[in-house]
Write a structure and sequence with these properties.
- By secondary structure, the chain is an alpha/beta fold.
- It has a domain at 10-101: 3-Layer(aba) Sandwich (Rossmann fold).
- The protein has helices at 14-26, 37-46, 63-70, 90-99, 111-119; strands spanning 6-10, 30-34, 51-54, 81-85, 103-106.
- A five-stranded parallel sheet has the order 2-1-3-4-5, sandwiched between helices.
- Helix 3 links the parallel strand 3 (51-54) and strand 4.
- The chain is globular.
- The termini are far apart.
- 32% of the residues are buried.
Length: 152
């Protein structure tokens, strides 16, 4: 059994989801992506997770509705959930926090800042001891949600 933090990344944009998984894996976490609310619910039922990141604007079930459904799963009631969104309106941020989100990260974001912010919500024993925000590649690169991939 791994003592790494298990993180579920939910985003309908594959490039964004894979980049987040890459960053969190590089930081020493065990991360997996779900490109739909339905898949995330299946994975969440089967796994004990230490943190979930949710996009808001997804086809079908949006991030707010998905948050409510995830929190109905008994073993996820206390799991921290943070929203990662390219639509950071005051209303969206307020709704996220009213639902019980622990954080709201705006896309695009800087890689090292993103990882540090996510790890701040992980239990101390599950944060890789060797992690330092500068360990994340392309520290100054931003994740751009408008292009299908990010290459320097």
């Amino acid at each position: 059994m791994s003592d790494k933090a298990k993180i579920l990344v939910v985003d309908d944009q594959m490039a964004v989801a894979m980049m987040i998984v890459f960053l969190l894996t590089r930081a020493g976490c065990e991360a997996q992506a779900a490109l739909s609310a339905e898949k995330s619910l299946r994975l969440a039922q089967a796994e004990r997770l230490d943190l979930i990141t949710l996009d808001i604007d997804m086809p079908g079930i949006n991030g707010f509705e998905l948050f409510k459904r995830l929190k109905q799963i008994p073993h996820l009631r206390e799991t921290p959930v943070l929203f990662v969104s390219g639509n950071p309106t005051i209303e969206n941020q307020q709704r996220a926090f009213e639902l019980g989100a622990v954080d709201f990260i705006e896309k695009p974001f800087g890689a090292s800042e993103f990882v540090a912010q996510v790890l701040s919500h992980i239990k101390p024993g599950q944060i890789p001891q060797k992690f330092h925000p500068l360990d994340v590649p392309d520290v100054d690169a931003e994740i751009n949600t408008q292009s299908p991939c990010n290459t320097p």
